[in-house]
Amino acid sequence: MTNLNQILPSDGVLKTNSSSTNVVNIRSAPAVKDGNVIHQGKSGDRVKIIDKQKPSGDTRTWYKVQFSTQAKDVGWVREDVISVVASQPAPDKNPSETDTLVYFVTDTKTVRVYGKGQAYINVYDNKTEVTNRAPAAKLPKNETNQLWTTYIASKDGYTYQVRFIPGADTELTIIHENKVILQQKGFRADGTEYRPK
After folding, report:
1. 48 vs 40, 88, 121, 131, 150, CA distance in Å?
2. Coil, helix or strand for 98?
3. Cβ neighbours, 10 Å, residue 73
4. Helix (H, G, I), strand (E, B), or coil: what is residue 175?
5. Given pLDDT bands bounded at 50, 70 and 90, which one contains residue 190?
């Protein structure tokens, strides 16, 4: 039996158990009969797992998940509609919290800047579960940009820009062939450079 403390908190990716829909029901309680549908997620949505239990008489495990940024955005999904994943998947071992300079999620990505000496940017696609990892450089602040801390990395013709105001805003920009193809604000941010001193 798995010790609950060994897997929590962790992330999950919703998945459908139906061939006719990509909708995943998130319920008010860990039961199909007694748990009203309080939210409908989509297959590929990333959620934060905050608890799990196997209700008496049920053969399946249920996961309590936070599906949005508000504390009240919490519900239950059954084990057949969620994949438990590491908090930050990476092609090699995950960096420690002390090595993480900034971490946040956007609507479609999970972003981490980490490293001692050489910084790296990991951009994880929450739907395809593919991580792009590249060495990063910290840009110097200038007179017009005193608030934002910016890291930039390039890989396979893409430029990844991660910027943040410590304790406040976070943002990911992806550029390909001199065109911005993605720009998203972040939430659930943390990290040694992000936390206000």
Report:
1. 15, 12, 21, 18, 26
2. helix
3. 15
4. strand
5. very high
Q: Which residues contact 57 (CB under 8 A, 6 or more apart)?
A: none
> What is the token pair recorded at 183?
């720009």
Write the single-letter amino acid at 188: R
* SS3 (DSSP) at 6: helix
Question: Which CATH number fits the domain 4-85, given the four candidates 2.160.10.10, 2.60.40.1120, 2.30.30.40, 2.60.40.1730?
Answer: 2.30.30.40
- Give pLDDT tens digits for 45-95: 888 888 889 888 888 999 999 888 777 889 999 999 998 875 444 444 566
Q: Which amino acid is at 85?
A: V
